[in-house]
């Protein structure tokens, strides 16, 4: 009995460490998204280069998460709910790493937008970035807290991100039509806006994983949020 | 000894079934990508609607893969290499499901491109689709065969996909500049081409997972393929 108690405690500690690692990854990814959009608006090329460079951290943290998750499974042989939590951690770390890739991709576009006058939708992107990074933050908190209800609330917020994106998309298209010289630059902004919108999708995706880890039910069984890749309304 | 042999055999059979499930998912995803591009070129609206509908299959297969992987870990408590294989299967199934999402997204755009004359780059998309679905096919074969070398060869092919995409991207931009009336339609084609290009990235990503599962080494330790999200050259 004492041994069993000890084992459970050790497992809980390992799992807490795994969750802390995911939170750490989330912090990096949120920072990278917000910072890449700040650099974009302020044309901070050095800042943008730094984000590209720092993405390695997330890659290494993902590897570390996988290593620890595998070790935890091998040493502690968790069952049922606990195993579901470890598998969720594995999958969530991949998604967070991908959010970092979007920030890196945005940062790489910063120097390409240097020349020429201001493009209006540019100023809306940081606000959209704020919306999606808050989703990432809250959904990872929901994972740490095993809070299925909080995960569902994050999923519901993706609709507003999609609407925001659609409005930016249309503005960019109008911009392209008014002046063909803007087309190259606007195409980059189109992809940047899309990247930010995709971060919202990924937060939603994590929300589904958190919901499953916490309840054992796939969200598919109930009315589903708009988690899928959207199509622009033109 | 007999019991141990039996257990190992049972594990191998379970793992083979898991691999077969991933191959099945891959078959669906490859078909969906190719078929979505055929529907696009031939304006087959019914075919496109069918792909959107059939994407549910991939979602269910991913859930089934996860269920079996978790069961396999819980019942057989695999160690080291075997556990790495199961974790790879888990992660790969998520990526294949995402490839299906790209096909679904392309299919949803088919009705939006209905009106108006032919756009030249359209005819290049099926060829690009063929390149990336072959990558998906070969990299999943590499997973089934545990062939790290074959995985590396697939990764190397992503460069050609990126070049192809870049050429389509530029053509579309020229197209937009020549006639502003084309901008809405071209924007959809831009996202479709991007989706196809992303499938190549995902095949590359799977290649890295296969390499790790087969060798225990992350590909990061050696000269790395161009696995990351690209930036268009304008």
UniProtKB/TrEMBL annotation, chains A, B:
Keywords of the record: Cytoplasm, Phosphate transport, Transport
Annotated ranges, domain PhoU: 22-110, 126-210
Predominant location category: cytoplasm
The keyword Cytoplasm appears for this protein: yes
Gene3D superfamilies: Phosphate transport system protein phou homolog 2, domain 2
Listed Pfam families: PhoU
UniProt GO cellular component terms: cytoplasm
GO biological process, one term: phosphate ion transport
InterPro entries: PhoU, PhoU-like_sf, PhoU_dom
Subcellular location per the Swiss-Prot or TrEMBL entry: Cytoplasm
Top-level taxon of the source organism: Bacteria
Recorded family membership: Belongs to the PhoU family.
Subunit structure: Homodimer.
Function: Plays a role in the regulation of phosphate uptake.
Alphabetized PANTHER family for the sequence: PHOSPHATE-SPECIFIC TRANSPORT SYSTEM ACCESSORY PROTEIN PHOU
NCBIfam families membership: phoU_full (TIGR02135)
The protein's name: Phosphate-specific transport system accessory protein PhoU
Native species: Sphingomonas xanthus
């Amino acid at each position: 009995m004492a041994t069993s108690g000890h084992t459970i405690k050790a497992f809980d500690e390992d799992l807490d460490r795994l969750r802390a690692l995911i939170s750490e990854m989330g912090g990096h990814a949120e920072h990278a998204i917000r910072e890449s959009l700040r650099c974009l608006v302020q044309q901070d090329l050095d800042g943008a280069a730094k984000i590209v460079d720092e993405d390695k951290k997330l890659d290494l943290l993902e590897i570390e998460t996988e290593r620890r998750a595998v070790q935890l499974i091998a040493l502690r042989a968790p069952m049922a709910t606990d195993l579901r939590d470890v598998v969720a951690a594995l999958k969530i770390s991949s998604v967070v790493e991908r959010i970092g890739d979007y920030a890196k991709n945005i940062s790489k576009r910063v120097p390409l937008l240097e020349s020429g006058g201001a493009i209006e939708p540019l100023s809306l992107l940081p606000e959209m970035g704020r919306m999606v990074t808050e989703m990432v933050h809250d959904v990872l908190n929901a994972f740490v807290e095993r809070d299925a209800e909080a995960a569902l609330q994050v999923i519901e917020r993706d609709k507003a991100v999609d609407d925001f994106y659609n409005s930016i998309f249309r503005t960019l298209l109008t911009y392209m039509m008014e002046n063909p010289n803007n087309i190259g630059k606007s195409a980059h902004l189109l992809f940047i806006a899309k990247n930010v919108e995709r971060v919202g999708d990924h937060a939603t995706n994590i929300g589904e994983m958190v919901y499953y880890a916490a309840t054992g039910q796939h969200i598919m069984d109930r009315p589903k949020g708009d988690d899928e890749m959207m199509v622009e309304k033109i």
